[in-house]
Design goal:
By secondary structure, this protein is mainly α. It contains seven helices and two strands; from the N terminus they run H-E-H-E-H-H-H-H-H. Helices cover 48% and strands 5% of the residues. The termini are close together.
Amino acid sequence: MRFFILCGNKRSSQVHPVGGYKKFLNRNELKGKKLGVVRNLFNSGNVSTVIPAFEHHLDTLRQSGATVVDNLEISSVDVISNPSKSGELTAMLAGFKTSVNDYLKDLVSSLVRSLADIIAFNQQNDALVSM
Protein backbone atom coordinates (compact mmCIF):
# COMPACT_ATOMS: atom_id res chain seq x y z
CA MET A 1 0.00 0.00 0.00
CA ARG A 2 1.33 3.44 -0.90
CA PHE A 3 0.23 6.69 0.67
CA PHE A 4 1.31 10.22 1.49
CA ILE A 5 0.98 12.23 4.64
CA LEU A 6 -0.28 15.63 3.57
CA CYS A 7 -0.86 18.56 5.89
CA GLY A 8 -1.13 22.31 6.07
CA ASN A 9 -4.26 23.13 4.14
CA LYS A 10 -5.94 26.55 4.08
CA ARG A 11 -8.80 25.46 6.34
CA SER A 12 -6.50 24.29 9.14
CA SER A 13 -5.04 27.79 9.49
CA GLN A 14 -8.56 29.24 9.68
CA VAL A 15 -9.82 27.00 12.50
CA HIS A 16 -6.77 27.07 14.80
CA PRO A 17 -6.75 30.16 17.02
CA VAL A 18 -3.75 32.48 16.95
CA GLY A 19 -1.37 31.38 19.71
CA GLY A 20 -2.94 27.90 19.95
CA TYR A 21 -5.54 26.45 22.31
CA LYS A 22 -3.63 27.01 25.56
CA LYS A 23 -5.48 30.27 26.23
CA PHE A 24 -8.74 28.30 26.51
CA LEU A 25 -7.47 25.95 29.22
CA ASN A 26 -8.92 26.36 32.72
CA ARG A 27 -6.80 25.09 35.64
CA ASN A 28 -9.91 24.16 37.63
CA GLU A 29 -11.74 22.35 34.84
CA LEU A 30 -10.76 18.83 35.99
CA LYS A 31 -11.76 19.26 39.65
CA GLY A 32 -14.39 16.65 40.48
CA LYS A 33 -14.16 14.93 37.09
CA LYS A 34 -13.76 11.15 36.92
CA LEU A 35 -11.49 9.70 34.23
CA GLY A 36 -11.23 5.99 33.47
CA VAL A 37 -7.96 4.41 32.35
CA VAL A 38 -8.12 1.15 30.41
CA ARG A 39 -4.58 -0.19 30.75
CA ASN A 40 -4.79 -3.23 28.49
CA LEU A 41 -5.12 -0.98 25.42
CA PHE A 42 -1.56 0.24 25.96
CA ASN A 43 0.41 -2.98 26.37
CA SER A 44 2.41 -2.78 23.17
CA GLY A 45 5.33 -0.81 21.84
CA ASN A 46 8.36 0.56 23.61
CA VAL A 47 7.24 0.51 27.24
CA SER A 48 10.58 1.87 28.47
CA THR A 49 9.55 5.40 27.46
CA VAL A 50 5.80 5.15 26.95
CA ILE A 51 4.76 3.94 30.41
CA PRO A 52 6.71 6.57 32.40
CA ALA A 53 5.31 9.34 30.18
CA PHE A 54 1.80 7.93 30.54
CA GLU A 55 2.18 7.76 34.34
CA HIS A 56 3.46 11.33 34.41
CA HIS A 57 0.35 12.54 32.57
CA LEU A 58 -1.94 10.58 34.88
CA ASP A 59 -0.22 12.26 37.86
CA THR A 60 -0.76 15.65 36.21
CA LEU A 61 -4.48 14.87 35.83
CA ARG A 62 -4.68 13.84 39.52
CA GLN A 63 -2.84 16.99 40.62
CA SER A 64 -5.35 19.01 38.60
CA GLY A 65 -8.19 17.59 40.68
CA ALA A 66 -9.38 14.67 38.56
CA THR A 67 -10.23 11.31 40.06
CA VAL A 68 -8.41 8.71 37.99
CA VAL A 69 -10.08 5.29 37.97
CA ASP A 70 -7.09 3.16 37.06
CA ASN A 71 -7.10 -0.31 35.45
CA LEU A 72 -10.69 0.02 34.30
CA GLU A 73 -11.94 -3.29 32.92
CA ILE A 74 -14.13 -3.36 29.80
CA SER A 75 -15.29 -6.83 28.83
CA SER A 76 -15.44 -6.12 25.09
CA VAL A 77 -12.14 -4.21 24.89
CA ASP A 78 -10.82 -6.68 22.29
CA VAL A 79 -13.67 -5.69 19.94
CA ILE A 80 -13.45 -1.98 20.74
CA SER A 81 -9.69 -1.86 20.12
CA ASN A 82 -9.81 -3.82 16.85
CA PRO A 83 -10.52 -1.46 13.92
CA SER A 84 -12.02 -4.26 11.80
CA LYS A 85 -14.31 -5.68 14.50
CA SER A 86 -15.44 -2.30 15.85
CA GLY A 87 -16.32 -0.81 12.46
CA GLU A 88 -13.69 1.91 12.83
CA LEU A 89 -11.83 0.79 9.69
CA THR A 90 -14.98 0.87 7.56
CA ALA A 91 -15.88 4.33 8.83
CA MET A 92 -12.34 5.60 8.33
CA LEU A 93 -12.15 4.33 4.75
CA ALA A 94 -15.57 5.73 3.88
CA GLY A 95 -14.67 9.09 5.40
CA PHE A 96 -11.34 9.15 3.57
CA LYS A 97 -12.90 8.37 0.24
CA THR A 98 -15.61 11.02 0.56
CA SER A 99 -13.40 13.84 1.86
CA VAL A 100 -9.90 13.38 0.44
CA ASN A 101 -10.57 15.38 -2.73
CA ASP A 102 -11.99 18.32 -0.73
CA TYR A 103 -8.93 18.26 1.49
CA LEU A 104 -6.44 18.03 -1.38
CA LYS A 105 -7.95 20.85 -3.41
CA ASP A 106 -7.39 23.26 -0.47
CA LEU A 107 -3.71 22.44 0.08
CA VAL A 108 -1.57 25.54 -0.04
CA SER A 109 1.36 23.93 -1.85
CA SER A 110 1.06 20.47 -3.33
CA LEU A 111 1.81 18.46 -6.45
CA VAL A 112 -1.54 16.71 -6.07
CA ARG A 113 -5.08 18.07 -5.93
CA SER A 114 -7.13 14.84 -6.01
CA LEU A 115 -6.97 11.14 -5.25
CA ALA A 116 -6.58 10.56 -8.99
CA ASP A 117 -3.49 12.83 -8.89
CA ILE A 118 -2.01 10.74 -6.05
CA ILE A 119 -2.59 7.51 -7.94
CA ALA A 120 -1.05 8.96 -11.10
CA PHE A 121 1.94 10.30 -9.13
CA ASN A 122 2.49 6.88 -7.53
CA GLN A 123 2.34 5.15 -10.92
CA GLN A 124 4.76 7.63 -12.52
CA ASN A 125 7.21 7.61 -9.59
CA ASP A 126 7.35 3.95 -8.60
CA ALA A 127 10.97 4.04 -7.42
CA LEU A 128 10.35 7.12 -5.26
CA VAL A 129 7.18 5.89 -3.54
CA SER A 130 8.52 2.37 -2.99
CA MET A 131 11.30 3.57 -0.67
